[in-house]
């Protein structure tokens, strides 16, 4: 088992990552008045019993949310709050976010807002959630933008048992691993090289290697969050690939294009912009060939019009005065914030469109 210390201005806590470590939860939830598990329909049938068998004899209630981004709506959020009130949860209760990134976002936002804040623990079950489970960003979506209603609210603990990753379908493995690749690009050329040499299939990564890659990705995020908890400056680097990615995801309709699939397209777009704007020296052909071998479709979908996508990018949280601001790379491991002219955005968009 590996452990990472997350240090922020508001709270310090631990991340535990390893195989078959869910039993550690027993001690962590002792002393709370009630336990509020938020999970989804998929996890209910696959893994919920593995979690509940390790809970102490404390009154426990389980809320089953819709799968994926469909959990991150006003109506589901309100339903969670109503469920908590009806079952008498108080400020000594604890929320367990048992699922992927969407469940972590929903459950964390419920914890942040219920009675002005109650404790919660992140128990991620996807590769994607290795990114979202730490750092304290919790949110739901708005029809006009992803993660537009939310808070910075840190968990008490992150318990990342990688046994739960074994049942992930290939599509979800690709979605999650996009964030691992992102962490390598913004932090360390050696990390990126290790990925490109050792990972030939996302369905057959040895458990030891997978744990190592996930730990490295989480360490990258932990180091940034330590310096900038509330995204006043460098935390925005973690949004590399997300300006276009979120726009594509929103345009396709939440859940129709996975977060990681959209972000990977956004990563290739940001790399191409980095080459154009900052003269980044990067073997983009070799990189995209590797992505294709892993099953990624990195070209922008042909049916997505630039002007519509540009409107979404203007609404991005990093935009200033209606001008999209991108995270670009001067070199691997050296990200910068950069405003990019609309004409270049359009030219690059059409260059990469299918």
From TrEMBL:
<feature type="domain" description="3-dehydroquinate synthase N-terminal">
    <location>
        <begin position="64"/>
        <end position="173"/>
    </location>
</feature>
<dbReference type="GO" id="GO:0008652">
    <property type="term" value="P:amino acid biosynthetic process"/>
</dbReference>
<keyword id="KW-0547">Nucleotide-binding</keyword>
<keyword id="KW-0520">NAD</keyword>
<feature type="binding site">
    <location>
        <position position="137"/>
    </location>
    <ligand>
        <name>NAD(+)</name>
    </ligand>
</feature>
<keyword id="KW-0963">Cytoplasm</keyword>
<keyword id="KW-0028">Amino-acid biosynthesis</keyword>
<feature type="binding site">
    <location>
        <position position="259"/>
    </location>
    <ligand>
        <name>Zn(2+)</name>
    </ligand>
</feature>
<dbReference type="InterPro" id="IPR030960">
    <property type="entry name" value="DHQS/DOIS_N"/>
</dbReference>
<feature type="binding site">
    <location>
        <begin position="164"/>
        <end position="167"/>
    </location>
    <ligand>
        <name>NAD(+)</name>
    </ligand>
</feature>
<dbReference type="GO" id="GO:0009423">
    <property type="term" value="P:chorismate biosynthetic process"/>
</dbReference>
<feature type="binding site">
    <location>
        <position position="146"/>
    </location>
    <ligand>
        <name>NAD(+)</name>
    </ligand>
</feature>
<dbReference type="InterPro" id="IPR056179">
    <property type="entry name" value="DHQS_C"/>
</dbReference>
<dbReference type="GO" id="GO:0009073">
    <property type="term" value="P:aromatic amino acid family biosynthetic process"/>
</dbReference>
<dbReference type="GO" id="GO:0000166">
    <property type="term" value="F:nucleotide binding"/>
</dbReference>
<comment type="function">
    <text>Catalyzes the conversion of 3-deoxy-D-arabino-heptulosonate 7-phosphate (DAHP) to dehydroquinate (DHQ).</text>
</comment>
<comment type="pathway">
    <text>Metabolic intermediate biosynthesis; chorismate biosynthesis; chorismate from D-erythrose 4-phosphate and phosphoenolpyruvate: step 2/7.</text>
</comment>
<dbReference type="Pfam" id="PF24621">
    <property type="entry name" value="DHQS_C"/>
</dbReference>
<comment type="similarity">
    <text>Belongs to the sugar phosphate cyclases superfamily. Dehydroquinate synthase family.</text>
</comment>
<keyword id="KW-0479">Metal-binding</keyword>
<dbReference type="GO" id="GO:0046872">
    <property type="term" value="F:metal ion binding"/>
</dbReference>
<keyword id="KW-0862">Zinc</keyword>
<feature type="binding site">
    <location>
        <begin position="101"/>
        <end position="105"/>
    </location>
    <ligand>
        <name>NAD(+)</name>
    </ligand>
</feature>
<feature type="binding site">
    <location>
        <position position="179"/>
    </location>
    <ligand>
        <name>Zn(2+)</name>
    </ligand>
</feature>
<dbReference type="GO" id="GO:0003856">
    <property type="term" value="F:3-dehydroquinate synthase activity"/>
</dbReference>
<dbReference type="InterPro" id="IPR050071">
    <property type="entry name" value="Dehydroquinate_synthase"/>
</dbReference>
<keyword id="KW-0170">Cobalt</keyword>
<dbReference type="GO" id="GO:0005737">
    <property type="term" value="C:cytoplasm"/>
</dbReference>
<feature type="binding site">
    <location>
        <begin position="125"/>
        <end position="126"/>
    </location>
    <ligand>
        <name>NAD(+)</name>
    </ligand>
</feature>
<dbReference type="InterPro" id="IPR030963">
    <property type="entry name" value="DHQ_synth_fam"/>
</dbReference>
<dbReference type="InterPro" id="IPR016037">
    <property type="entry name" value="DHQ_synth_AroB"/>
</dbReference>
<protein>
    <recommendedName>
        <fullName>3-dehydroquinate synthase</fullName>
        <ecNumber>4.2.3.4</ecNumber>
    </recommendedName>
</protein>
<feature type="binding site">
    <location>
        <position position="242"/>
    </location>
    <ligand>
        <name>Zn(2+)</name>
    </ligand>
</feature>
<keyword id="KW-0057">Aromatic amino acid biosynthesis</keyword>
<keyword id="KW-0456">Lyase</keyword>
<feature type="domain" description="3-dehydroquinate synthase C-terminal">
    <location>
        <begin position="176"/>
        <end position="319"/>
    </location>
</feature>
<dbReference type="Pfam" id="PF01761">
    <property type="entry name" value="DHQ_synthase"/>
</dbReference>
């Amino acid at each position: 088992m590996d452990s990472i210390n997350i240090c922020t201005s508001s709270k310090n806590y631990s991340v535990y990552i390893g195989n078959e470590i869910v039993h550690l939860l027993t001690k962590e939830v002792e002393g709370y008045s009630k336990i509020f598990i938020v999970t989804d329909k998929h996890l209910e049938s696959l893994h919920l019993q593995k979690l509940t068998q390790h809970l102490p004899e404390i009154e426990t209630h389980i809320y089953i949310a819709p799968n994926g981004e469909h959990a991150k709506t006003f109506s589901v959020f309100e339903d969670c709050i109503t469920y908590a009130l009806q079952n008498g949860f108080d400020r000594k209760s604890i929320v367990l976010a048992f699922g992927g990134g969407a469940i972590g976002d929903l459950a964390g936002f419920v914890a942040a807002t219920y009675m002005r804040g109650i404790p919660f623990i992140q128990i991620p079950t996807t590769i994607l959630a290795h990114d979202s489970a730490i750092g304290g960003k919790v949110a739901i979506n708005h029809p006009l933008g992803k993660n537009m209603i939310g808070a910075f609210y840190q968990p008490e603990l992150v318990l990342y048992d990688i046994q739960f990753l074994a049942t992930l379908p290939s599509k979800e493995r690709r979605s999650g691993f996009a964030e691992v690749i992102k962490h390598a690009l913004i932090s360390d050329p050696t990390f990126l090289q290790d990925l490109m040499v050792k990972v030939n299939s996302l369905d057959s990564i040895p458990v030891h290697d997978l744990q190592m890659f996930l730990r490295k990705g989480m360490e990258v995020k932990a180091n940034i969050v330590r310096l900038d908890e509330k995204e006043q400056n460098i935390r925005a680097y973690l949004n590399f690939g997300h300006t276009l990615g979120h726009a594509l995801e929103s345009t396709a309709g939440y859940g129709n294009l996975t977060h990681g699939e959209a972000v990977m397209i956004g990563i290739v777009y940001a790399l191409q912009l980095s080459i154009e704007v900052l003269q980044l020296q990067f073997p983009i052909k070799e990189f995209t060939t590797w992505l294709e071998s892993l099953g990624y479709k990195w070209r922008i979908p042909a049916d997505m019009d630039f002007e519509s996508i540009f409107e979404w990018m203007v609404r991005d949280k990093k935009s200033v005065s209606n001008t999209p601001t991108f995270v670009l790379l001067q070199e691997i491991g050296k990200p910068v914030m950069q405003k990019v002219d609309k004409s270049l955005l359009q030219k690059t968009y059409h260059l990469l469109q299918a």
